[in-house]
Amino acid sequence: MARRGDTIELAVLGLLHEGPMHGYELRKRLNLMLGWGRVLSYGSLYPALKKMLRANLITEVVATTTPTTRRPRIVYEVTEAGNAEFNRLMSEVGPTAWEDGNFDIRFAFFSSTDMEIRLRVLEGRRSRLQERLARVQAELERTQAEVNRYAAELQRHGVESVEREVRWLSDLIQAERGGDVAPEATPSAATPSAASPTARTPGTTGAPAAND
Amino acid sequence: MARRGDTIELAVLGLLHEGPMHGYELRKRLNLMLGWGRVLSYGSLYPALKKMLRANLITEVVATTTPTTRRPRIVYEVTEAGNAEFNRLMSEVGPTAWEDGNFDIRFAFFSSTDMEIRLRVLEGRRSRLQERLARVQAELERTQAEVNRYAAELQRHGVESVEREVRWLSDLIQAERGGDVAPEATPSAATPSAASPTARTPGTTGAPAAND
DNA sequence: GTTAGCATGTAAGGAGTTACATGATTTT
DNA sequence: AAAATCATGTAACTCCTTACATGCTAAC
């Protein structure tokens, strides 16, 4: 069960999956990867690493590998159990995989999963956003008149952004289906590409989209 | 000093500014306004209201105003001190006004401020985003090769979203400067721009930047 | 020689969530 | 008559940030 807060754990496992690393570097990579405003603090990274150590998901090795006598850095490496856990977390489909804080990190490590999972997560995410869109638009029809200019503009802009992301997801889904593994290379993905903004994803997905 | 966590307070003051309301309704309006994924819980709203009561920013009135004998709802109203506090918070320019979690709510209540403040906040927000963009792009030049396809696509999409938001802000700034108070009416603003200040929702959005 | 960046941690506390508890009213 | 939604709260807990504490190393 991957509940809230396992975000850091998954991210760490994913990064270490690509090779051993020490805390400081881990943090930098993490901030670049899913930061966009959020900055992970040491006060949250180091305790998380300690916890993972205790759970045997990673091991620490003091590395004195440097030129003169650099301060010994503690290099972390995934254990087999850690890799198993990583795979387990990545294979999970369901709200935990496509909810706001969780989707990004899964997506970033998509290379380590197979297409089936990728599709389910992408479709789940898309359904989630479409639901939201529907709910907000329904709400707007009832409230519309009373909102002020700026609040309305904010709403409009928000809706547009979500619609945009839906299109992005649709393009990615198509690319996956088309066997085109590279998502960015296709110019089609960047430009128009179809997406049904409103239409709920057909039964295809196993995503009933449980809510709040 | 409006530090973190005054978000709810400002939002509540802003909503009550438009008229008295009870908790349940407050929560719904709030979620619609800046929800986009986040759902404010009662466990955070009611204690916040209690705190504001103690601080004399609002008063509560038990309203038995309903048809038969509906459960008495507690209607909140801003006090003079509350209005003063609202104005103080809205007049603050600086990071607190344009940082991620704070910008949206200020923007929604922009009608209650004057153009000078609005411009400063919009410009501050834009600078912030541009800084991030610059930092990320600089970072990407150094790291580029090693990232995998999906992580790279996430980055690309994130950068694009932020660039979109910058354009949106620029349009709004121009509209303010042009004396055109209505931001949405202008077809120029509606068509090309649009990013999402609010809709951080999409996993992609963020910007890693802001490391210490 | 001093600033900036590398590197690792801990303690206290804030902001908000989940889960619990309760009950009235409206809609189906 | 059941289900949904209105309506108000509290207690425990979680995740994360801030601020503190320490010291090395590279560059200017």
UniProtKB/TrEMBL annotation, chains A, B:
Cross-referenced InterPro entries: Metal_resp_DNA-bind_regulator, Tscrpt_reg_PadR_N, WH-like_DNA-bd_sf, WH_DNA-bd_sf
Lineage: superkingdom: Bacteria
Pfam families documented for this protein: PadR
UniProt keywords, alphabetically: Coiled coil
Residues of the Transcription regulator PadR N-terminal domain: 12-87
Chain coiled-coil ranges: 119-160
Sequence ranges of Low complexity compositional bias: 182-212
Annotated spans, Disordered: 178-212
Descriptive protein name: PadR family transcriptional regulator
